[in-house]
Design brief:
Layout: H1 2-18, E1 26-29, E2 35-39, H2 40-46, H3 70-74, H4 95-98, E3 99-100
Length: 101
């Protein structure tokens, strides 16, 4: 009985960390054309990407984030490194897939 209580106690203690957001969770990027909500879970879990696929080469962190234009992305910077029509859907003409109003 004591072993069962210990196991249950460990589950209660560790459950919150198991349910924590993947990576940085969702990141809201403010934009005049409609904010963009980036989901770490969709990219890391859903698409089985590693953190190193984007960090630190394409993205550093929120504090060091640099503004990137759509022109930059179409040239392969930032999200455009994968969203180029080959690895993932292209950023060009797919505004509604990322921007919300």
């Amino acid at each position: 009985m004591r072993k069962i209580l210990i196991v249950l106690a460990l589950l209660v203690i560790t459950a919150p960390s198991a349910m924590a957001a993947v990576g940085g969770g969702e990141i809201i990027l403010k934009n005049k054309g409609g904010d963009v909500i980036f989901s770490h879970e969709r990219h890391v879990v859903g698409l089985e990407q590693t953190c190193q696929a984007c960090h630190p080469k394409l993205f550093t962190n929120i504090k060091q984030h640099k503004t990137v234009t759509m022109k930059d992305m179409k040239a392969g910077a930032s999200c455009g490194a994968c969203h180029n029509g080959t690895k993932a859907f292209e950023v060009k003409d797919n505004c509604a897939k990322c921007h919300i109003k």
